[in-house]
Design brief:
Number of helices: 8
Largest sheet: 7 strands, mixed
Strand order of the largest sheet: 3-2-1-4-5-9-8
Order of helices and strands: HHEHEHEEHEHEEHEHE
CATH topology: Rossmann fold
CATH architecture: 3-Layer(aba) Sandwich
Number of strands: 9
């Protein structure tokens, strides 16, 4: 585990309860709930029934009941101690909870029908070990559904919604970048779309579907500026890949 990853975990551990409360706020969680979540729901819906499901990087468990109510067996893991403690506290009778890093999981080979990774991959510079490990724990023909910061969004500044954003970085330079939340800085890594597709193919997956989700018109009143921005410039990407 590299230093950036350890520092991100330290920040999430420090902000665990504050982050969980932020995510419960409708307006502050607009990007997660009104943009990213509909995208992964669309990809997951045909796959959930009767599945053995891993929620990889489950955070404080805010979506646990949503997934657990639709699957046969629910498992969850996160690398952050404080977020996992909150999830277990709120859902102690649901699922199986394990503190684990995505690159080295304690599950047996070919355990899961379906793995979900919501907004995790951009924290890693080298995506290969994660995809290799997910392929290991998935059953043959199992699905990996994952979302991440859109590569286009990663190179832009977040200007007001009625203005064009300013390009800050070279799209072809796959380097780290800093972004803030709750007055704390986090490190993520930019990956070109070409790189993401290549790592999918190299680790034994077919790319089945790729989405660039946008919020529904009904969500505009929750966060008008956020709604306007992400309907002009993509914020997230969501992909479904199947293990060959």
């Amino acid at each position: 585990m590299d230093q950036h990853h350890l520092e991100n975990r330290r920040m999430y551990d420090r902000l665990g309860r504050e982050y969980a409360e932020k995510r419960k706020s409708e307006s502050q969680s607009f990007w997660n709930d009104q943009v990213e979540l509909p995208g992964i729901k669309q990809l997951l819906s045909p796959l959930l029934k009767d599945s053995t499901f891993l929620d990889l990087a489950c955070g404080p468990g805010l979506r646990t009941k949503l997934w657990q109510s639709q699957v046969k067996n629910y498992f969850a893991s996160d690398f952050c101690y404080s977020l996992l403690a909150i999830a277990k506290e709120d859902h102690d009778l649901l699922g199986n909870w394990i503190q684990s890093d995505a690159e080295s999981m304690p599950y047996k080979t070919e355990t899961f029908d379906l793995v979900l990774s919501s907004l995790l991959l951009h924290y890693f510079q080298d995506l290969g070990p994660i995809f290799k490990e997910v392929a290991r724990v998935l059953k043959p023909d199992g699905s990996f559904v994952f979302s991440f910061h859109h590569p286009f969004d990663e190179i832009l500044s977040h200007a007001p919604a009625d203005k064009f954003p300013v390009i800050l970085r070279n799209y072809h330079d796959e380097k780290s970048y800093e972004w803030g939340m709750l007055n704390v800085s986090f490190t993520s890594f930019h990956h070109k779309i070409e790189t993401i597709i290549k790592v999918i193919n190299e680790n034994g997956f077919f790319l089945d579907e790729l989405l660039e989700p946008r919020p529904s018109k009904e969500s505009e009143s929750i966060n008008p500026k956020g709604y306007a921005y992400t309907n002009r410039f993509p914020s997230f990407m969501a992909i479904k890949a199947t293990k060959r």
